[in-house]
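hey m, so remember when u said the tokens were messed up on ur end? i reran from scratch. heres the input so u can diff it against urs
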Amino acid sequence: EKSKRVLKSIEDGTDERKKERLLQDYQKMRDCPTIRFCFFLISLPIRRARITYQHPDAEIREFVNRNLAIIRRNLTEHILAGLEFGFAPFEKRFQVIDSRVFYKEFLPLRPWHVKVLTDGVSFKGMRLFKQPIYHGEGGSFVEIPPRKSFIYTHQFRFMDFRGESLYRSARIPWLLWKEVVRLHAHTMQDHALPPLEARAPDAVLTINYDDRVEQITARELMIRVAEAIRSRSSYLLPPDEDYGIEAKQTARQWDYEKDYDLCERMIAQALLTPRDLFKEGGGSYAKAYVQSHWFAGIVDAIVEEIISFVFSFAIVPIVRYNFAKYQDPAIH
């Protein structure tokens, strides 16, 4: 009982709030070109996979494979959200065919709208909110019971059904990449729209309009002219005898290419993707072969993880529900 209370306190603590807030970052991280490409490399074999079920009983084998055919499209595509957000929630929907209960579909749910219900020891269902949970848990929601819930959890540990996102270790290099992009954009603006340097004497001018006369200092007039010219910024020098406006080019003092290269390398490592698989230029064939081999092993491990969840929480329940010889009183 004490262990249960400790686990429950952890679930209700700051770690849960932190994971919910991170969901917003994971959404934004999908817009990073390097992260998107690395994820494509990892997910491609999973998208192409076709899960089939083998069983000595031909009736059960055919029944399960019919169910897999029904849910395959939604499941294969949307289960990848579990890698991005740590978990991929679905609502099971059923139909009756030939006096047996089949899956009608696995309705994919957005992880950032779902709160997983657990007491730290067992799964208690899900709560689907109308608004993203990282904005708080206010507003309307729908509760989905355990028997109608399916969750694929990436790196399922300590009964935490929210798992851990594949993006988590790439978050810091992604934040660095964002800052490099921001600073690079400022540098590009400085060169495309250089600041203007204006000069004007300390004098008062009279300007005659059709309906009025305005007195203005030469320096105020020059500021107006400088601001009317398309530029990122402008400034006025101390009083001068002459009038003038000059664009001041700034020197390139930073090599952003090296920064992008560093961020790309860090992101690729965090996402367990060999950078040699997609970087430009030549390289060692032996090195590429070794990296491709262990990369394939990583993808195989992820596929096995997904299959394990599908078997345990999608195939086993529907078989036990439909075939009396596999009934288990503990399964509801």
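this time it looks ok to me. The chain is about 45% helix and 20% strand. if urs says something different then somethings off w ur setup not the seq
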